[in-house]
Amino acid sequence: MGEHPSPAPAVAACAEAERIEELEPEPEPEPEEPLPMAPEDFDPGNTGYISTGKFRSLLESHGSELDPHKREVLLALADSNSDGHICYQDFVNLVSKPAQMSNKRSNSFRQAILQGNRRLCSKALLEEKGLSLSQRLIRHVAYETLPREIDRKWYYDSYTCCPPPWFMIAITLLEIAFFLYNGVALDQFVLQVTHPLYLKNALVYHPQLRAQAWRYLTYIFMHAGIEHLGLNVVLQLLVGVPLEMVHGAARIGFVYVAGVVAGSLAVSVADMTAPVVGSSGGVYALVSAHLANIVMNWSGMECQFKLLRMAVALICMSMEFGRAVWLRFHPSAYPPCPHPSFVAHLGGVAVGITLGVVVLRNYEQRLQDQSLWWIFVAMYAVFVLFAVFWNVFAYSLLELRLPPPP
Fold it and tell me: Which residues are catalytic?
């Protein structure tokens, strides 16, 4: 009988991938990998990629030092790539210890092998044609939020809209519902905060009622007026929903709630006689984290008109912040209590450029493995503890004259 024709490279790569999928990792703890990992050794131009030639020479010289499972995956990854280069960070993630990789990141390599050149090919995601409306939306979100092409392709291939971005949608609907209810109850929708009964609501943070701990969070459901609500809703939908689609409700919800709590606590420390209303603390945490992420990864962010988008976001934030400053120093409609404070905005920004930046930077990688994450969490915890003690002791020690309860 004649010899069978050799299988096509793509078929061989898939067959190799299926064989790799069946391999089990060694049960014993892995020894420290002595592979050279300095990016200047393989990526002198700082392009984010290493050539397949250097990649294969590395495997030949250090293949015996690798775990067999890792060596098989690396070889199949090289065989399935035809564009002459491999992402350096993905190589580092793969040869790192399993404790330093999330399950999703590990699965992304298996997907890359199974799908041949789809994720690692030279053809950019933007160049794909014939996409449906939903596929174009997912691609747009990927380019709006992720700086690396390999992450964008992995997100595009794996996103199923299950679960949908429910957190930002739910919190927005609740804020609108509470605003409409208060508008009907007060018979006022523009500058509701000037109504004499506005502060009697049990959701508003008031300095005299700071012992009621829920007010440090529930104040987000009370807005100064329809213009206040409108700007916050627009920002948190345009920025918050895409971020939640990529990073999930848990991460984005954490940043949002952390910004809300930091906002009210900042007011209780820096503007002690003023009440607080509005969701600006959470909104500013998300928007500032997103803008900081764009600036830090400017060359990798390929969203259209990114400079114009940043300018529009900054203008909207400035308008809303300017309105809050004007209202705070405007003669109060219910003296001696001043109008709501603007300091909550600054608390949200502080959370966004610390915790928020770390959350957005580490797409699909476990935050508990990031040292910077723990540093910022510790800083946030120290601030919260300081604010709690401040609220317990400082008001009496300073003999501050607070406005009467509403």
Answer: 280, 345
